[in-house]
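Let's sit down with a protein and look at its sequence and fold side by side. Please make up or recall a protein chain and show it to me in full. Label the sequence line and the structure token line clearly, so we can match residues to local backbone shapes. Go ahead whenever you are ready, and we will take it from there.
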Amino acid sequence: MRRRSVISRRVAAAAISVVLVSGAAACAGPQDAEPRGDSGDQGKPRKGGTLTVLNAAPQTDFDPARLYTSGGGNVPSLVFRTLTTRDREDGAAGTKVVPDLATDTGRPNADATEWTFTLKEGVKYEDGTPITSADIKYGVERSFAAELSGGAPYLRDWLIGGSTYEGPFTRKGKKGLDSIVTPDDRTIVFKLRKPEGEFPYLATQTQFTPVPRAKDTGTRYEERPVSSGPYRVVRNESDGERLLLERNPHWSAKTDPERKAYPDTIDVRSGLDAAVINQRLATGTGADAAAVTTDTNLGPAELARVGDDKELASRVGTGRFGYINYLAFNPKVKPFDNAKVRQAISYAINRTSVINAAGGSALAEPATTFLPEKKAFGHRPYDHFPAGATGDPAKARQLLKEAGREKLTITLTHSTEQNRQTSPEVATAVQEALKKAGITVKLQGLESNAFNEARWDAKKTPGFFLSRWGADWPSGAPFLAPIFDGRQIVKDGSNYNHAQLNDPAVNKEIDEINKLTDLDAAARRWGALDERIGRLALDVPLFHPVYKRLYGKDVKNIVISDWTGVLDISQVAVK
């Protein structure tokens, strides 16, 4: 059972983490990916120059054991290569998993309980020493150490012996995990306790970064990690507020067709105010002309200004990450144990007013399904409680009458943080919509940390609250399983199954889909399962966020995929 999840990393902090706020901007598709030298053709991306990254959140914990690959834009993937990676293509094409350090995306045994990878020949660290399978094994094992916690939780659940392993820094853990086998320097085998057809997706996580044991400095490794990617860390100041990257001389494009690595230097500067970031990008003087942001969105007022300026508008793009904002019910709390009450609320919601509260249609798109509207997730369109764009209060009143709850007073818990996701404005929009159906809603606003602690505590989960969820990779598995798999209900830790649904048929279907290594077939079944669970009215999908970003006037080759929703720094070139 997973004790932590992407949300504990992205959301349980005092502010929304980089994934929510770091859907990157991209308006054009990728340009010619090959540098042309001094040909006089200014439309082609070329090598050279410095790319500046202006961010609000510092790139903290710059250790592959402690990061998510989607965290911090793609800055970590410039330094850390993994067994597999995402296809660095624009849009839906970028949801595919492709080889990185490995020669392929992994070879499963008959029931997907064992995965074998072979490393490419000639892959090296920044000092020229070869990367070996033993380094991958050690990199995975150190991610189990308590002092390096923070990364993706899946390996603890998936690997045989993972649930009790303590990492290589303890006397008991020095022997390593028997479920990771390295028969030679280029081969590594992972033995799982259950079928996992999506292991190639997991192998994109930074925990699969090679780490040379002799160079490991434990908790200080983040200060000067050993690079396996196109850039190496030459400066890390104030725990990631200033991160300076320069070329790794031993990186070879022949072994890494995904990362283009055009700039000579990448200068990441964080801890900046969002308004200052957008102003600097808009003005674009000096180094800011060749700058991007991976965690700062444009707000409604800024978008209005951009709309009146054609030059600025040409430098704004749209990114979408697989994310859902929704109303959550806890059926263990009355009156939400009554399905007709939950259905009535579903009919009463005015999504137009909710979207306006979230920043308007440019920043939010209405949702009636839990899964995002992307093929990779297996999205299947449905609307079990069709209320139109502005709600159906008459239908809601009818259902409340049938439930014997014509006069109903309930409490909606939300965050007091101004994040346009679970904010007071969105809560107020819900309150006003339900009032038209005869439902009195009292608002309970909690500070961000208290809000997250409340909604993820199985013993204290509110009956009705605003929530959100994002997937670690573009599939229905990390989207539906943590929320609806009854075996993942956590009584004494972070619990994400807000409804505490424990349906044997749902659990069985999750297991059956997890056996599939045909990811397209798996996606179709995730979509069917989403539609099936949706009939239970355990949540009310509200909207999917949309990200609008500015980038500098000298930045070229803007690429953003539906995998991360983040501008891909590995593709960017500067004048």
